[in-house]
Amino acid sequence: MADPVGRAGARIEASLGESWQWLTQDSGEALFGAGIALAIFAGLELLLWLARRLLPRRAPGWRGLAGEIVHRTFSLFLLAAALDGATHAIAPPGPLLRLVDGLFTIAIAVQGALWLRELVLGLVRRRADASPEDARALGSAMGVITVLVNVVVWLLAAILILDNLGVNVTALVAGLGVGGIAIGLAAQGIFADLFAALAILFDRPFRVGDVISYGTSTGTVEHIGLKTTRIRAISGEQLVMANTKLLEQQVANLRRIEQRRVVLTFGIIYQTPPDVLEALPGELQRLVEQVADTRFEQAVFTGFGASSLDFELSFFVTVPAYSAMLAARQAVGFAMLRRLAELGVGFAYPTQTSFTAAPDGRLVDPTQISGRAP
Question: Which residue, 322, 271, 274, 266, is CA-closest to 299?
């Protein structure tokens, strides 16, 4: 059995010999192919130069992202593309054609990996550049994101190159799959919190500086990290929540409140005349409309209580600030007290009244029997 290294060397020598023979004997066709390759290369370089002029790297929005991708295009890739195009216009020997195809495969795999890497990282940066808070929050995660993107992109490029060069990559892909599953199971908690952090940064349910409420806690978001989010509670202490646990709960973002609804329930005494009861909703509406930054919703009679006639007043405070809601609720409450006092309407409070009845069930006035001797 011959030495494998020797056989490979013999094949390379034979291929180079055949290619050299074609270059020396068919020099005219070789020069024609070289001219085609040079023309294609010059045209691609001109297009690349124009694209770089039209798409600057630091432009805002999608033009900036496209500019970053264009500036990551290298002349070696254009040269490989020009050579591949020229070999299809002439008839070079098989070994030379396979050599050019192999070089073009390597070039396009490397260049595609650079484009894909720049696209993914550019999308991440573009998302973060929407606000300074997001940029600061993403700064700590950017290193990990870059490492993950580089590993995935260059691994795909290496597999593509090896597969096109005739290497059996089935075992390699299977091994990578098993290894990836093992790593994922071992670090599933870390990856879960990492992806939860990315979900917070990209989906933006809240940002740094927002006041949020979850479970029984309320506070201001101070930092969004790779594993945890730190929240300053309204009582002063700092709360540290795992990103995964935080997203599993219902989170209320209080900073995004556009208006606040206020509901006031109260009861008045049963001795109130019916005419006054019927006019009361209109009186309450006028009171609310006189207070700044409020919008009346409804004032309705809700039922007969044990010791009161129950009403409900609801209105909106159109200014989102919590202090504005407190001020409006106070102003409406004081105005209600004054107006009901003017109407002679008393607020009800829990009371009991005892009635005395005769043996036949007729009510007896206690004042009429209080002076009788026992």
Answer: 266
